[in-house]
Amino acid sequence: MTDLSPAQTSALAYLEQTVADQLAFTKDLIRTPSPNPPGDERAVASLVCSRLAELGITDVVTVASEETRPNLIVRIPGSMPGRSLMLSGHLDTKPAGDMSAWQTDPWEPEEQGNQLIGLGSGDMKAAVAAMVYAGAAVKQAGGFPGELQLVFTADEEAGSIKGSKWMAENGHLSADVAVIGEPSGVDEEWQSIAVISRGAALFKVKVTGTQMHSSISDRIKGINATVEMARLIDRMDREFKQWITYEPHPLCPTGPTVNVGVMASAGVFYGVYPGNAEFACDIRTLPGMTREQLEADLERFLAQAMADAPDLRAELVFEIFVPATEISPDDPAVKALQWAADEVLHFSPPLDAFPGATDAPHFQLIAGVPTVAAFGPGLLPRAHSPNENMAIDGVWKAAKIYALAALRYLES
């Protein structure tokens, strides 16, 4: 371990003394349901506020677009002017889904070996708990310049409309830099520091055919919308990525991710020849990709598909486009995270792109806060899955990394 400042040494000592409390608080957060949909973060936000108060942190402001969707802004000021750093996590989780696939109660956390099992454990209640205790450690250490903020958002799992997007659009977010604690492992925990938050393009393709009595389909020519949709889905799955216009990025070597047919619907009922069908797609985009160019690529692809299949009538319905974001690898906050990770984990994770979308676009593109998209405990493939779990020691490792990185950034 390198020489630490007095504040860093004090913060680490505090976190060593509160390891059991950090884990217990993580379990309390898991026991407090906040599935989205339907979306109601009041109980878990209240729990966070209560623990902050117990830890002596009282500068907490609740902002919300509606009563059931609270967002928390926590301020921990230093002893002199300086930079501001935001640590952020979301309070909601995905729903539990198929309860029969869970081997345990999703809201009753269990320890099995070195794993903590429970809904939202890695995504991302452990990171929220770690940030709360990192904030307490920084506060009690004192003597640092600037300000540490903790921002806990609602509605991230359903697009952040009532969370970070609303906060950014209404002027509630301001800092020099932000770090989001999304789980940063894919194959192993703490695998990388995500300086890119890939964007998301969500759209549907509607296919029109001939609705009529199905008993005469062999006597009167009609267009089966379901069959035409199936053929188009197959072609799009095989070919569309080649039609996308984008600049390659060294941290995204596989390019955009194209998911065709994430939802599909067609037909009316038995006896009805299907006249309408539609399917939904999501594309995870790279920095520099725009909605306008992607729409143009889609329209070109559909025009060619219809030219090749005269019975195909397809219409693009573009719904949501969230741009990708990127923070400079040389940003002092990124350097501080690399240093802190090396102190705690004994290695410095490489820089990478977060595969999914995060709150980063709203922080960075609307509020103007450069954002590290993800560095937190847990494994992304286990999120949104039955029996969600993460390494138990991820909680206190995260707390130490966040506290050390915050002080390193603020003191430099």
Give the spatial strand order of the biggest sheet: 1-2-6-3-7-17
Q: How does CATH name the architecture of the largest domain?
A: 3-Layer(aba) Sandwich
How many helices in DSSP terms? Answer: 10
Would you identify the CATH H-level superfamily of the largest domain? Zn peptidases
User: Strand percentage, roughly?
Assistant: 15-25%
In the CATH hierarchy, what is the class of the largest domain? Alpha Beta
Low-confidence stretches: none
Quaternary status: single chain
Distance between the terminal alpha carbons, to the nearest Å? 18 Å
| DSSP strand tally | 18
The overall number of domains is 2
CATH topology title of the largest domain: Aminopeptidase
The percent of residues in helical segments reads 25-40%
Written account of the structure:
The protein is of the alpha+beta class and 412 residues long. The protein folds into 2 domains: 6-198 and 324-411, 3-Layer(aba) Sandwich (Aminopeptidase); 199-322, Alpha-Beta Plaits (2-Layer Sandwich), CATH 3.30.70.360. Helix content is 33%, strand content 25%. It has 10 helices and 18 strands. The strands form 5 sheets. Strands 1-2-6-3-7-17 form a 6-stranded mixed β-sheet. A 4-stranded antiparallel β-sheet has the order 11-13-9-14. The chain has a 3-stranded antiparallel β-sheet with strand order 4-5-18, with no helix packed on it. Helix 1 (6-17) packs antiparallel against helix 10, helix 2 (19-30) crosses helix 4 (121-141) and helix 4 (121-141) packs across helix 10 (394-411). The radius of gyration is 24 Å and the shape is elongated. The model has no long low-confidence stretch (mean pLDDT 97).
